[in-house]
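Thread: "does anyone have the structure for this chain?"

Original post by V.I.:
We have the sequence but no experimental structure in hand. Need at least a predicted one for the grant figures.
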Amino acid sequence: MFKLERITDFVKFKNSGSNEIFKFIKPDDNDKLSEMKGFDLQDLLFYLDDYYLSLRDELGLSEDVTFGLELEFEYAMRKRIEDKLCDTGLFSEWITKIDTTLTDGAEINSPILKDEKKSWEQLQTVCDIVSPNAKIGSHSGGHIHIGAQTLGANPESWINFAGLWAAYENIIFRFGYGNFLTSRETMDDYSKTISPSMRSDYEYLKRLSEVSLKDVIRSLHYGKYCAVNLNHVVNPDRFITSNTIEFRCPNGTLDATIWQNNVNLFTKLLRYATSKDFDEDTINRRWEQIKDKFTDLRWYDEIYLSQALELCDLIFDNNLDKVYFLKQYLKSFATADKRIGKAKPFTLRK
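Reply from O.Q.:
Generated one for you, tokens below.
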């Protein structure tokens, strides 16, 4: 499967550049990383450790996918930020608001965005403006709204999503910690874990011979302050402004590459739930393996490599996406005991 010569000299390759991984696996291929064993897996992880992520021009998302971002930050010099947004012509679309849940807090809400170069360039500009004029504190979140039409109007897709989320919530959370090693301090207050509830409703809904989309969405909505908030869903059949699935679990960040990577993960989770190739057997088997383990959010800080490899093989169809996912999830295999510890940087500026 992997025909390249193995690495045997760590020192020789340590500073050889960040793209060596794509001499080992081709970015456009779709290798089953969860099936890699022994030296192949060891080499993949070695190359991954030396690879740094950068902002992509686009992710290859479908034209119908829409999303919006809420950038929260603290100790904000709001007037300076607003003046800079005015200078760049973004002030009327990227809206600045006060956030009273944060210390000298503010947030910027993006316009409705699509996966195109212009969107990512605007995001980069906004992050560059805010970065010297605010901080990401221990309470800052990074909420992402994705148009409900991405998941669609088929009740089965929503039920699939519930099963998928339940089986991999711990992986999704650690990935969403971004450039931190743990969740923000207020995660339990504003983005509660929902894995057991999702699984319980998944099993209940699967037993029904017939169920309406309205009933499915009602069953899976656990309130605004949960990791997945369905309060904004109006009509999943088509695009409507503010008709979104909100993902509240990512930590705040002012790194555009991490924002883009988060959008990619959540969109691909939703799209996979609509797939005719949805692998219910794997989802159910994984749930049986993890169902008794996660009784505390601190468990989510740990690394579960086989589970992460399995998830990326399920939802991504190319190695580039998988590498981006694994790099942000693994964070050089670092973990932290204290809250909100910083990860080693893993992104490059464009």
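V.I.: this helps a lot. Residues 1-17 have pLDDT under 50 and may be disordered.
O.Q.: and The first strand starts at residue 67 and ends at 73.
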